[in-house]
Every structure is written in structure tokens, then in C-alpha cells.
Amino acid sequence: MNIIGEQAERIRDIGPIQPRIEPEELAAALGVEPCGERVAGDLDPIALAELGSALIKQLRSTGGRPALAPERGRNSNPTNPQIRRI
To answer: Cα separation of 71 and 67, whole Å?
Structure first.
């Protein structure tokens, strides 16, 4: 790769390191309850791939319109008297 022009200066973060915020502390600050279990940080690539496949499977759209609930049935006629006048 040929770089043309002046090379950009490297950015270095020299600010103070911020303390770690625990999930429980963050949840309390936001006024919510923590949910789920903490996952170990040392997952192997196979486990991560399986997790990704499961998430994609759940999030993938089927492309169709959601079915009507059975108790609703199909209502093709307006029931409001004002609408019937129109």
C-alpha cells in the first residue's frame, strides 16, 4: 500500500483511567433492575459462533405479515355506526 502525503499523528490517550462501574451500580443509577446472568469473559470461538447463530435465528424476519389472533377473528365490516353512515 502506498501512502501519499503526510502520515497522521498517532492519537494517544493520556487521561486518567476511569474506575470500573459494576452492572448493579449502573442499574441502580438508571432506576432499573439488572437482568440476565453474567457470562464468563473467556468464551471460546465455537461458543461465540453458536451464540451468534442463535441470536441471528431469533432476529431473522420470516418476511410475512403476523397472523391475526384467533380471538380477534376477521372483521371486514366496520362496527361503528358513524363509519357505516359514510
So the answer is: 12
